[in-house]
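This protein record is not my work; I was only asked to verify it. Would you go through it and say whether the fold makes sense for this chain? Here is the record exactly as it was handed to me.
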Amino acid sequence: MDRFDTMLAFTRVVELESFTKAALSLNLPKTTVSAQVLALEKRLRVKLLHRTTRRISVTTDGAAYYERAIRLLNELEETEAALNQATVNVKGRLRVDVPAPLGRLVIIPALPDFFKRYPDIQLEIGCDDRPIDLLEEGVDCVIRIGNPVDSTLVARRVGTMQFMLVASPAYLETYGRPASPDDLPHHQGVHFFSSKTGKVYPFLLTQEGVKLEVATTRQLAINNGDAMVSACLAGLGICQLPSFMVQALLASGEMESVLTDFGAEGFPMNALYPQNRHLSSKVRAFIEWVAELFSVCPLLQAIRPA
């Protein structure tokens, strides 16, 4: 039995605390993963895991072996990637999670190019705005907007997202158009709130280089970008939305831009993956492809509407 395979199986069981989840992550039968870990323990002549009917935990020897195994797996992966970058056959199951609007409008329409480059990758994409536990749910990497707050994840910057204030023509006809950020507290606003913390976010603007946080008269807060678009189109208030989500609606006249001289600074887009899991060639390939896509996608380029 290959030592690399048994080492990889063991580290994944430790990370996910489950043979079933580890097997799913590695796209292997559970019996195979269990046999690999047993073979590893037999070869090392130590007990690496405590197994009960309810949970799996690592022993003291297992924890020490895990730390060394992760370093070796990282070094091996980096060495193979450096030597075989031009010819490596990237393959296997890859599970990622991306914000729903970004997946729908940017990533999924570009996937024919991804599969042309990497025909042997079986890609599973979660399009969700909810917080997820990568290790618990067996996700290889996620794309998220804003500065990362989880210190257990490695962040790779893959692009910048521009936001803008928009409203429907019906709303502006009824309530008027704000001339400056000082007018916003007198307007209805549809704000975004975090599913994880419940925090309702104000509008973020800049005025002569100074960052501003501006709240409105709020009757509605939503935790989903597509739903915020619907609320804006219904005339429920002014919204601050990513420019890639509203460009077509601005062009059609269904939305109008507001306070274009006070736009917010771009928000970083990051690919995140667990720091204690080696970066596989398929994850590296996806991250590199996403970074290239974001750099050329017209929807993600800064716009300045009239």
